[in-house]
Amino acid sequence: MQLRYSFRVYPSVSQRAFLARSFGCARVVFNDALRVRDDARAAGLPFVTSAELSRRLTASKKTPERAWLGEVSSVILQQSLRDLDTAYRNFFDGIKGKRPKTGAPRFKSRRDSRQAIRFTANAGWRITGGGKLRLPKIGDVRVKWSRSLPSVPSTVTVVKDAAGRYFASFVVETDPAADLERMPEADATVGIDLGLTHFAVMSDGRKIDSPKFLRRAEKKLKKAQQALGRKVKGSKNRDKARVKVARAHGRVVDARREFHHRLSTELIRENQAVAVEDLAVKGLARTRLAKSVHDAGWSAFVTMLEYKAARYGRAFHRIGRFEPTSQVCSNCGAKDGPKPLNVREWMCGACGTVLDRDVNAAVNVAKAAGLAVSACGAQVRPVLVPAQRGEAGTHPEPRPTTAGQTGIALL
Questions:
Q1: Dist CA 180 CA 151 (whole Å)
Q2: C-alpha span between 91 and 83 (Å, rounded)
Q3: pLDDT tens by residue, 290-332
Q4: How many CB atoms lie within 10 A of CB 381?
Q5: Rounded to an integer, what distance in angstroms lies between the CA atom of residue 373 and that of residue 357?
Q6: What ranges in 271-407 are assigned the alpha helix state H?
Q7: Catalytic residues
């Protein structure tokens, strides 16, 4: 299994300047190659192959207009062409229904919030004995190691985010047998109902409060964004204010990711099987709850659960979003119809059991996945049985092409 490990790096002033040049060269190669394919499509010509793009890249480096491409490692330029191939493949697979739809490849800009270059093994990069990352034509970069790598990495990607921070992202191969030994089998199973008031409610009755990282940071974010709005466009002070806003958002993102990692690891460690509901996050993000939905980050959390379950030999189940988990009594199975969101506790009309809405839904999620979960975890309260009653019947828009993206005809 391939895993990605990311670490913070601290390049020197001269190294940051060379990294900026490398980001720019990779961006120019990507844009020139995309323009060649767009022009071929507009002219009715065949799709330009990757081999042809690579030949044109080599030829363009010998021209005065693109001679500066030779100042950086050739590997990152070739990897930029591979990134374009991946973007096209994802676009075509989305059209064919093989994966979720994505937009067509777009031109990159120096103003994009994320800049990245990738080095493969043949680039000659390595980790020195002193724990630094040696990159070709850049030098030894200091790395803050938070943990050790399980094996020798195959590639490293250097990333600069909107807040001006640099990261080194390593791709490594792991041994599944070693991962299984680190996390022995567990006896418990759990169904999870994700929400906003409580981030996660378990089928055993446990409730995890929603941290609401974005809501708690809104006051500081508002102050930083107001300061940004007062700065003159194009000024140095505006650039400094923009970085402050990006850093504030970065702290929110980091805290949310840490929370997701800790909770997902805990659930995978304690349970042999985990079941969640396939939520329509894109649809919910278009409602008045959009900010809270984005703040919760359900999709990222479920993705962590899925890959950690595969890594440690756990069973992961994702039930359909149209399963009536909030309408069915987990005690007797009777369907009691839809209920408004303000109804947090309800009584089953068939058996008279008083049910907690969220815990009952979590139990039904587990049952729908075929897990052996008892309804006693739904916090039921038996009451007098009344007379029987009948049943109540999101891709970002492509960004416009920026000025200065006209390349040469060779690439």
A1: 16
A2: 12
A3: 999 999 999 999 999 999 998 888 999 998 888 888 888 888 8
A4: 11
A5: 16
A6: 281-284, 290-296, 298-311, 357-368
A7: 193, 277, 358
